[in-house]
Amino acid sequence: MRRILSRITRDGRFTYLEAGHPDANPIVFLHGIGGAARGWVRQLEHFRRDWRALAWDMPGYGGSKALAASASITIDAIA
To answer: pTM for the full model?
Structure first.
């Protein structure tokens, strides 16, 4: 069983934590304002047995880059 891994998206904009088998069904944990993916470590440890557990750092939190000041906050801006 894999441990918790710290990852970064291909474009370098976002960071996330990942645990579990990459072919398992995903379960995604999202933090609130002022949080970070690391707040979900205990849940990742628990759910990695049966799931591909992921915890994402929202823009400007954890290791993710902030959105540009001129960026519109839309789904397209963070996709």
So the answer is: 0.77
